[in-house]
Amino acid sequence: MTKQIFTSFSSDELKGLIRETLNEVNNQIKPIDENVSVDEQLLNPTETVALLRISKVTLQKWMKTEKVPYLRMGRKVYFKKTEVMKALNKRIGINRR
Length: 97
Known about the structure:
The protein is mainly alpha-helical. The protein has a domain at 42-92. It is 48% helix and 10% strand. The protein has helices spanning 11-28, 45-52, 56-64, 81-92, and strands spanning 42-43, 71-73, 76-80. The chain has a three-stranded antiparallel beta sheet with strand order 1-3-2. The model has no long low-confidence stretch (mean pLDDT 83).
């Protein structure tokens, strides 16, 4: 059984409480990694298989065996284009200069 507490706040007190809570949450959010470019292109699986010219099954196998790095945002999967290209170059042995 949960306790219920009823109290009354003025609108200014409520605004201040909300502002404090939002500031606390904002301070707890991790800052963006400085090594990651804000303009970095994220690809969905369809775009990634087209870029790599592989099947979706192959992409899934590469994800499972960690041959290609990916990001999961909720239920969606994305790939950083630069990291996919690095993984591909490493896989086929190309060193670009």
